[in-house]
């Protein structure tokens, strides 16, 4: 436990240091740089990872939701959700697609972030096929999640939401999360890591999960459905400093992205179509992709669940009340 706390503190210190460094070298990246008058669209940069959950941002752009709100939105690809946090603090991003874990890690230490909308929830249908799953490497001998003690598992980010979900799922299945080694690997590189034997298992999301299945790799667990059914997944968060300085533009982004998430929930074919514009997946892989359960709702209870679970697993050092984290205009 003490080791985990030290790691969390070290990671946060690095994030803060990165924030300071980025702020020092990006002074020209003002979010107001494009506004030349009342009629000029506000320039907004949004960090996303190229997975199905990001579809609402691209749909909002295609359908004119941002234009209707007088916003000029530029998506910026980030390697992982955690990487977006220092970019939000430096002003390089105004909003980002991030899970609850890095959000609460940062805000529990005083960094100003705000949640403006939900994006999706973990499927609460135990019989459903999920768009994210734990896949075993050939030759690993793994057949179920409780067998992971002593094994190496790839997640998209250390101290991330996927790692926390894995730890909860392992313990609930009768394993011991403290005996599992987690390593950070980007989603596009997970299948090759499994095939080379670099890791024993990986928590992969679509469209990469479909690629893993096509290569004959075996799914041994659906941790999100098994351990956290119905819980809030990805969020749309913003820089608290920028929101305070630009409340009307922040409210405009909130309206547009919420509308887009709701549209995505009702139009799965549109989600698959837009995915072809920002992922490198084949048409076949996109067709086989299991889409997220899009849901724009987010509550204080949602955030409290994550804060309490993070405390239990040593992701944060002390109890944290996230009741003010959800921003309202």
From TrEMBL:
Residues 43-267 form the Solute-binding protein family 3/N-terminal domain. It is found in: Periplasm. Its main location: periplasm. Pfam families: NMT1 (PF09084). Keywords: Signal. The keyword NADP does not apply. Residues 1-23 form the signal peptide. Belongs to the bacterial solute-binding protein SsuA/TauA family. This is ABC transporter substrate-binding protein. It comes from Microbacterium horticulturae.
């Amino acid at each position: 436990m003490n080791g985990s706390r030290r790691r969390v503190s070290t990671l946060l210190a690095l994030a803060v240091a990165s924030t300071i460094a980025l702020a020092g070298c990006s002074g020209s990246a003002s979010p107001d740089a494009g506004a030349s008058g009342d009629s000029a669209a506000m320039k907004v940069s949004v960090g996303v990872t190229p997975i199905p959950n990001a579809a609402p941002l691209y749909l909002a752009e295609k359908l004119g939701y941002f234009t209707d709100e007088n916003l000029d939105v530029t998506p910026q690809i980030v390697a992982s959700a955690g990487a977006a946090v220092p970019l939000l603090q430096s002003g390089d991003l105004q909003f980002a697609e991030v899970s609850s874990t890095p959000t609460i890690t940062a805000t529990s230490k005083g960094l100003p972030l705000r949640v403006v909308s939900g994006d999706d929830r973990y499927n609460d249908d135990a019989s459903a096929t999920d768009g994210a799953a734990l896949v075993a490497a050939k030759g690993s001998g793994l057949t179920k999640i409780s067998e992971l003690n002593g094994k190496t598992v790839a997640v998209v980010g250390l101290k991330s939401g996927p790692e926390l979900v894995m730890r909860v799922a392992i313990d609930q299945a009768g394993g011991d999360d403290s005996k599992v080694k987690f390593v950070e690997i980007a989603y596009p590189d997970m299948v090759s890591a499994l095939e080379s034997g670099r890791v024993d298992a990986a928590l992969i999301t679509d469209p990469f999960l479909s690629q893993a299945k096509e290569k004959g790799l075996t799914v041994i667990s659906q941790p999100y459905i098994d351990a956290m059914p119905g819980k809030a997944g990805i969020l749309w968060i913003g820089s608290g400093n920028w929101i305070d300085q630009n409340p009307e533009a922040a409210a405009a982004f909130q309206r547009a992205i919420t509308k887009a998430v709701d549209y995505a929930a009702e139009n799965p074919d549109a989600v698959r179509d837009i995915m072809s514009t920002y992922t490198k997946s084949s048409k076949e892989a996109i067709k086989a992709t299991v889409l997220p359960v899009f849901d724009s709702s987010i509550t204080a209870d949602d955030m409290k669940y994550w804060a309490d679970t993070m405390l239990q697993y040593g992701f944060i050092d002390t109890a944290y009340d996230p009741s003010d984290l959800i921003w309202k205009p």
